[in-house]
Amino acid sequence: MATKSEKNNASTMSDTEEADIQRRPSSPSSSCVSLKSNQSKDPPHNFRNEGTPTQERRSSSPLSSCVSMKSDQSKDPPHNFRNEEAPAQERRPNSPLSSCVSFKSDQSKDPPHNFSGKESTQESCVSMKSNQSKDPPHNFREKNIPKTKRRPGSPRTSSVSMKSDQSKDPPHNFRNEEFPAQERRPSSPRPSGVSMKSDQSKDPPHNFRNKDSPAKERKRPGSSRPSCLSMKSDQSKDPPHNFRDELPTEEQCASMERRQSKDDDLNSKDRSGSIKMGSPEKMEPNLQNFTDQQSFKKTPDLCRIFSDLENKIIVFIKHELERFRKILTKENTKYYEKLTDDWCSAKEGALNLALHFLKKMKHDNIADALETNELVVIRQCELKSNMKNKYTRIFEGIAQKGGSTLLNKIYTDLYITEGVKTKDESELKKIEAASKNQETIEEPIQCNDMFEALSEEDKPIRTVMTQGIAGIGKSVSAQKFILEWANGNKNQRIKFIFPLPFRELNLKEGKHSLMDILNQFFPETKGLRFREKYKVMFVFDGLDECRLPLNFKKNEHCADETQKASLDVLLTNLIKGNLLPSALIWITTRPAAASMIPAEFIDRVTEVRGFNDKQKDEYFRKKISDQDLAIKIIDHIKESRSLHIMCHIPVFCWISATVLEQLLKGTQNEDTPKTLTQMYTRFLIYQTVQKNQKSGEQTASDVPWDKEGILALGKLAFQHLEKNNLIFYSEDLRECGIEISETSVYSGVCTQETGMFLGTVYSFVHLSIQEFIAALYAYVCLNNDKKNVFSHQNTSQENGNETIVSLLKTAVDKALESDKGHLDLFLRFLLGLSLETNQVLIRGLLTQTGSSSDSNKEIVQYIKDKFGENPSPERSINLFYCLNELNERSLVQEMQKQMKDGTLSMSELSPAQWSALVFVLLTSEEELEVFDLKKFIGSDECLKKLLPVVETAKIALLNDCKLTETSFKALVKPLSSESSKLIKLDLSDNALQDSGLKLLSAGLSSKNCKLEELSINNCGLTEESCQDMARVFSLEHSMLKSLELSKNNLQDSGVQRLAAGLEKQQVKIKNLRLCDCSITEQGCAALVSALKFNYSSHLTELDLSENKIGVAGVEKLSVIFKNYSCKLEKLMLSYCHIAGEGYAALASALKSNSSSHLIELDLRGNDPGDTGVKELTVLVDDPSCKLKTLRLLKCSDAEEAYKFLTESVRTNPLLERKLDLRSETLDDSRVKQLSALLADSHCRLLELRLNSGLTEESCAALVSALCLNPSHLRTLDLSTNKVGKSGAEMLGTLLENPNCQLQNLGLSNCSITKEGCAAVASAVEKNPSHLKELDLSGNKIEGSGLDQISALLKNTHCILDTLRLSYCHIAGEGYAALASALKSNPSSHLRELDLRGNHPGDTGVKELTVLVDDTSCKLKILRLLKSSDAEEACDSLTQLLKINPLLQTELDLKGKIQGDTKVKQLSLLLEDSHCRLQKLGLSDCSITGNGYAALASALKSNSSHLTELDLRGNDPGDTGVQKLTDVVDDPKYKLKTLRLLKSDDAVGAHAFLFECLKKEPLVLTELNLSKKKLGSTELKQLSALLVDSHCKLKTLRLNECDLTEKSCEHLAKVLSSKDSKLTELDLSNNHLGDPGVKELSTALRNSHCKLETLRLSECRVGEEGYAALASDLKSNNSSVLKELDLRGNDPGDKGVELIRSTSSKYKSRKIR
Length: 1712
Fold this sequence. Notes:
With 1712 residues, the protein is α/β, with parallel strands linked by helices. Helix content is 38%, strand content 8%. Strand 33, helix 49 (1489-1499) and strand 34 form a beta-alpha-beta unit. It is extended.
């Protein structure tokens, strides 16, 4: 890229050059040498005449040597074109060819001047680097060059380049190829400067001057100037005319072009940068005096003027035509685009001419293509011109007549950073966010680099959203960007920039195409068609003012810029990239409106932070011309923190400059503002004074207040502040009583802007001014009218009853209710105005002044109470500032407490919150003790933001925060600062590395560094860092006392370097941690040597944990404990591969030196052997030994378990060998702790029993821990815990371990599946030499699990003697497999086998029983039955029957067992799956209802095989029959036959009744057989049933059944039986007569009769029958008969009386 000086050389000549041209004589050839080309060295050797002596020169060559050198010799100055130094005789004659050498470009400069003033017959076209660095091409126009025109040998060498393309022989003459080499064409009147690489390496262009001559005859006459055109270089145009000479003669006209000066060249520029065709002042000094046409006639130079004009027009047109051609052929036209905008109309005219003639020539396609491409250049030129006119000047704050300033003069770079879309928050928070130490925050982004991707970004940036609070400079940044583009300084890849403010777009109604919109806003774009190659940019300013919905989800798709749609649709499609996808989009907005555009459509979010501290100073120095006054203003601003914070806003800087410039340069003694309220009050005073055009030095007492105007303006400000509006319209002003014609009166605080569509729009200069005016309005209304502005909806409040406290409380509440915080600054202003000190300034607006101290206290307390309501962080921080306005500072302590509690760090803070947090922390009166970066966000960015806090804190915890070298470099400042209080710094777990430590050591080495503790664990350090650290802590002024270097690869060499530093007496290190640093015994030896050498060593704590120092290393360390000068108090040697010998060495050393200072010894993770723990424990218990803390357990969980066991169980698990926790309830956390203890090598338990319902996860953790320490445990009982499949598999791993010594393993009811069981059995089979007892009961181990167990039993090495497999879902095949395995292994040690609760099948029991009886088999105990009762029943029956009941299918126990107890035992036996009984007789066994229930329950068991049961002669009770019949009726049970009735008659009756009733009669208590004809047989059978114990009938109705006397006899027997349960008998309507009644009455006499109701109506009973009944009833005093029905009979004379006599005795008896 050419430098600026080179570009100037290309377009204009210096005055020195011009003078030189005028001095020297005309040269026969021009010199086109560029001082940057390769000919700036000594000319190279003449390779063609190399053998010729130096004094011999070649004859003049007809052609120049155009070879370019690129060698280092191209630095010597170019040839002396003036021939000043060379002797006259050495000056070569005129050359027939010119020398048109270009040093870098392709001759892209104007053709050089003809220095000789003579015609040249030949030229030298040598280029030092360009494409003309070859031999010049043949002269195709003049074939015969006379030899006389060939120049003689040159006294100078030919500067041939060895690298360029022309460093070869010149190319062939393709037109005259047949001519001999010696034949040359005559000298051409114009040179041919064709480059072999440029586009002119083809045929030379046509001679436009001799266009009409035939091709063969088109030979121009000798030219006085050479033609050095290259088709690619910038010299591929005709050389410009020489405007310097006087009016040319006719002969001179031919060489007019040669004699033109560069000053008159088309491409030369004047001082303003515009292109000049010639200088009128130099060319025609008298031309400006012409005033009328007559004077022109008398002008002698008019001919020459028009001749020059003609030449200029010709040159311009040729220039444009050449450019048009290059545009169409897509060649480089960059040079042509340098023309300034004052040529736009001329260029457009040239284009119109070209288009006109092209169309006349029928080349419409060329015309269309040219118009499309060239129109872009012209329109761009016009747009840039308009943009410059619009944006060159800026109005600061307010727009006053003549008040604009050049943007470039006043512009100060703003602080713009990469940001994120933030949530809605207060603009005030944004003000505070950027106010502190911006130089320590993110890398700033330059305004002109807004669309430049960062180095790590691959995706190009299309859409940028720039956020910032009102007045921060977003619009000015955009204006600066556009102006730089329009001036051609930056971003020239962008063809067009279209600024479209939302303020003007809002009310654009109807449907339009994008091109319509652009044409309306930018008329210069008419006729343009955007193409992909043209980069276009849209600047949408003020998204927060947008009133369009911007519906990105629902708006229709639009991809055509000519398609008409609503403005909302066009904008959303443009932003999404559907419309003009290559266009760049820049959107500016206040943060609250950022969410209007979804994040996925934004490629970069930036934030304008305003001025940093340096930029603030720069602004004031630029703004205030008096630099002394500027310094005074800067100093005053810095004295007030609140003012200094606000000054990062450019508008506030303007306000401050406006106010302070008047106050500080004046003579009045008024106080300068120190708070925001005072500053804005002063600003309002200044504007009021300015409005009245009075002196700016008036005091507050005589301000000419316009009370009515101020209140009207305040009303406008307040009402729209409540609505969060920033812009107003004419109707808004009228509503508040402000006349449109008088708006200029208020121009000091508000401004107006006229848009294209909206008319005039009004706004305050800045949002803060609106907030202040609104607060002033609120306070004045309250003060003067007792009116609360917040109560505008309640007319009752307007009666003058409001107080200042009520107003302030309402304002506080309103501000807290605002999610966006738009009332925060308003509240601060309002509180500030309530102070009496501030009321002095506005007393002209108030009817009364002064404030009550009680009111002040009340509002302070009210604000403090609001903190109890937990407001958001933003609101809390603003309340802090509110109290500051009230001169109340106690809230600082409350805020500090919230910081300590972490209430402001629960979520990620926004940038505003970060800055506010820094401010609060820095201004807190309470000293900050600990700064923990993890409470916020662990990152470089966060640390940079909070770095000032680090400097004020005593402890900085920056560990594990993903910090990089950027942070380490930044930490140098707080470390080396004189004001730093930092004494502890933790940088552990960050990528510090050696390079980072070198950076950090600059701060650590500072004399100002007060650091006492440094932690840099796990920071990627090596031995190289040890040298730096040793140098740091061995410095005389170093305060470092604690150094942690753990988990760095320091190795022994690194420790040796540290030890060298520790030997120095001035070292203050007390604590040195070198955990996991790859140290061996050699490193230990170095440390011991250093401690011995430095007898004054302060080292009291040494950590060498996790290093492989071994026993040898410990033995070396033990030596230092024998040294009486050793001050070591704590020694950490955990995980150091120390064995029992090491423990012994330490114990011996400590015993030998009773004065040893060691109080704590850490040996966790080592192997103590059998006696190591005991030896050291003895020392701890020894009162003469200082060792009090012995750490042996690896982790805190193990220590917790140890504590729990020692306190709760009263046992020391490290010394005890048995631990039974079956009575303890252990939750998962406790089991986790216990697991950690069991995994520790210091735990040497032999027996562990746990039975507490552990989860599968806990069991897995426990087993995993045992796998880590397997060599001690002998018994493990995990029964009733959810070991599960995973736990069983881990147990298998434990059992496979050759170090495992486990003998007894209890896993009953552990949810182990067959896979888990197989894993355990397989592991035991692989390592069978230890396990003797295995309990897998209660686990489902069927199938593969049992197969693996059987395989284990077959293993001759298996020593298992007890195997419990109860309730394991083992079937007959399993029994057979077990029996087979035991049979196949006579040497099996199995003595006891438990198979209870399984299903043996038909033969399983028999097969195993045979083994028990076999004397050669060791199996002696076979457990099959579930319960002891079942076993007792089995044993009892075996003794009773002399057979094994488990092997029987039929069993008759009639009368052999008695009572329910025996039946219950028998029921349990029946319930067991091993009992195979199918028929069972239990008649006459005295079984009652309980026995029946037990049997029913057993029969319902799926294991019962019983199909037939005999219970005759037993008493079922009330429910016994029902329970058993339910079993019979249920098809899922096997019982099918149930025998209950003793006699056949009863059975017959049962069958008869079942047939009649279709249900079981034995369960009935009431039977109605009325009207059934019952003969004697049926009644007999029924009577037999009624007296059976299984019959439960209580009511029997036999009405109209044709019963006879014989029937009464059967019934009497039933009623007299003790087994009868009848209480009610109805025999009505039967012909019983007196004989039948007499039979019945005999039963009434029986004491067993239970009859309570007897119905004998219509039974033909006579007086005799009545007498019998009466007699029998009287004779049975125990009769329970309560009702006797004799209706329809004939009692005779005495029958009734007799019967009634029985009722008189039994008054309750009812006689009918």
